[in-house]
Amino acid sequence: MKLLEQIAVATNLREGAEGIRDILASVAQNQKLSLKNLANTVYMPLPVVAAVRRELERRNILVRDKGICLTQEGLKLVSDLGIQSSLVSEDHLISIFKDIKYKMPEVNVTLDQAFASPETSFRRVTYANQYDAISGRNVILIGDDDLTSIAIGLNSKKKGKPKRLVVLDIDPRVIDLITSTSAEFSLDIECYLHDLKCPLPPNLKYNFSTVFTDPPYTLSGLELFLARASEALEEGSGKQGYLSFGNKDPDTDHEVFKIISQYGFVPKEIIENFNTYDGGTIIGNISRMIRIVSGTQRAILPSYFNRPIYTGDNNISQRSYVCSLCGEKYIVGKNCSHIHIEALKQAGCSECGNTIFNLVAKIQEGKNDR
């Protein structure tokens, strides 16, 4: 919005229009803040926030009344910007969301899928709302087998609707479920079946202010997903990212944060054990939330990405199973009838129909880049 850009220029604010919006959002969500508390909330020096406050007062957007408050004109401005004036409790929505989650297909472990718990999906929404990352924003999800887009949409039915909500995913089953749910609940989610190894569709490039992503477990997967996140975000600093990624050893973490920096992002906050999963034993059923913010410098993005990104691509193995009832033997893995054990369970034993199998041995194992 040009007004925010004008105020940023008038106050010489390095954070730009996004910094002005952060200040307005903090005042909207915490009326009668002291100047010191406002500065602490937006992580800016107190003299800088004081200068912005004076400019906003001059424009009749803020007023001092036992703390910093919005004027009527200020209330209209934050409403026009789509900023939430208060955070919405999601407890009553989780039961609806759980019913939707029951429709999820079996995980496809070849895509490193491990579905997050319903509470995790809503926790992401609540966390992002604290930083004014959803309401009135163009939001994109780079992969969404956790259905976080649906949690955003359901939460937005009460308050804080995004301007645009877009999902990219390579799994047609996930896209079909999100599409049908969006239609059923009028959530206005745009869905694209897309392989991220290919460039983003032109209408999605440099169009978003917020991105959510939960990449594959590998470093190459992280690199690809962050490259596409950078490609999706609008130019300029202060665009927000919510990255869910597993805990790593110190040497691997060094590479993780190099990749984050390489694609123009700065980590602002790390919350350990933020995400919990049904499955995902490779990452111990948990991962951390890394809140990242874009800077003005962006990496040159790969047009096509040819490296393997999934754990199974880097850790090629086949496993031998036997049916727990009749003893029929099966080989599971690449170039086999069943790519993973979940597919075998879904098909059942060809001899007796049983769905319980016992692991006998790993036949082949390669290197893993995690």
Question: Shape, please?
Answer: elongated
Give the topology string: H per helix, E per strand.
Answer: HHHHEEHHEHEHEHEEHEHEEHEEHE
Beta content: 15-25%
The CATH superfamily of the largest domain is identified as Vaccinia Virus protein VP39
Global Rg: 23 Å
- State the helical fraction: 25-40%
The helix count comes to: 13
Determine the oligomeric state from the structure.
Answer: single chain
Secondary structure: elements and pairs:
Elements: H1 2-10, H2 16-29, H3 35-42, H4 46-58, E1 62-64, E2 68-70, H5 72-81, H6 91-101, E3 115-116, H7 118-130, E4 138-142, H8 148-156, E5 164-169, H9 172-185, E6 189-193, E7 210-213, H10 219-232, E8 240-245, H11 250-262, E9 265-278, E10 286-294, H12 311-314, E11 318-323, E12 329-333, H13 341-347, E13 357-364
Parallel strand pairs: 4-5, 4-7, 5-6, 7-8
Antiparallel strand pairs: 1-2, 3-9, 8-10, 9-10, 11-12, 11-13
